[in-house]
Amino acid sequence: MAGSSISEMIFFIAAILVSSAVAITLIGVIDNYADQISDEASVMEGEMRSRMTIINDPSYVVYDTSSSNLTFYLKNTGTSDLSMDDIVVVANGTAKAGNDIRVTLMGTSSVWKPGGAVQVTFTVPNIVEGVDYNGWATTSGINENGQIRGSAQDSIVFRIKGV
Amino acid sequence: MGMITGLLLAQPSMDRAIEDMKDARESVAEELTEISSTRISLVSVNYNNTTSVLNLTMENDGSNVIPLEDFDLLLNGTYVSGGIGNTGYFYPGEIHSVSLSNVTDPRSVKIIGPWGISDSTSNIGSG
């Protein structure tokens, strides 16, 4: 009788241990899965909030023939601020960023807010009127805490107008 | 018993993750609706050679109210600071006129509204 009680107790404790192990494993797996979904939602929101449009008139992109400087105008068409430091521009296969581009914020704000535009001037040699060129620009989105979140990019097929 | 306990304890974090995803999807859907219902067009662009004034007439032919300060303007491919130079709102169906002074040799005009929605013309009349 006593032996039966002890073995029942052992089975009971074993059952508790096994079910606890199953519970802990399940919590871990589901928590990981939940974190992944949250991360995906955050990335999706970041990408969605960070948007930029090259607003140049495609048939009339200003090109300074003496300095070979091309000017792109980029508008923040998303709902979060965009980084002016992370801008990368490409035209006719020439990519420029950092100190190789001059970025001027249009308007009075000190940050590139939604709805705001920036002027990006950079050197692209040997482009001529009457020829179609491909242009592209990208930058990072910035969240409320000033951290990088998402990215914005746009492309354009354009012709220059020499000045 | 372990499965039931595990599922019960993990339920809140799963709910939160699903809610995050739902919010993100709803935001995307809302923005797409806003974008698809925003339309602007340049009705006419006329230049008075004597006074050097360029008159633009634009129409909000979408269904969204657009703050006028959200507009950008390019003249001959160059950004015009101050855009269309107005505060207030541009209501659906409304016609809005803008006059730019001291303009020389206008050849191309482009207006850009929210979401980058734009219209442009190189068909500039006189008068």
Q: If you consult CATH, what is the topology of the largest domain in chain A?
A: Immunoglobulin-like
CATH architecture of the largest domain in chain A: Sandwich
* Helical coverage of chain A, percent range: 25-40%
In the CATH scheme, the class of the largest domain in chain B would be Mainly Beta
| Number of DSSP helical runs of chain A | 1
Report Rg of chain B.
Answer: 23 Å
Quaternary structure of the protein: heterodimer
Tell me the structural class of chain B: alpha+beta
Order of helices and strands of chain A: HEEEEEEEEEEE
Number of domains of chain B: 2
Largest interface: A-B, 47 and 40 residues
Kindly state the number of beta strands of chain A.
11
CATH architecture of the largest domain in chain B: Sandwich
Measured distance between first and last alpha carbons of chain A: 104 Å
Task: Explain this structure.
Chain A has 2 domains: 1-49; 51-162, Immunoglobulin-like (Sandwich), CATH 2.60.40. Helix content of chain A is 29%, strand content 38%. Chain A has one helix spanning 2-49, and strands at residues 52-54, 61-64, 69-76, 81-82, 88-91, 94-97, 101-106, 117-123, 133-142, 148-158, 160-162. In chain A, the strands form 2 sheets. In chain A, strands 1, 2, 3, 7, 8 and 11 form a 6-stranded mixed sheet that branches. In chain A, strands 4, 5, 6, 9 and 10 form a 5-stranded antiparallel sheet that branches. Chain A starts with a helix and ends with a strand. Chain B is an alpha+beta fold and 127 residues long. Chain B has one helix at 2-36; strands spanning 40-48, 53-60, 66-67, 72-75, 78-79, 89-90, 95-100, 109-112, 118-121, 125-126.
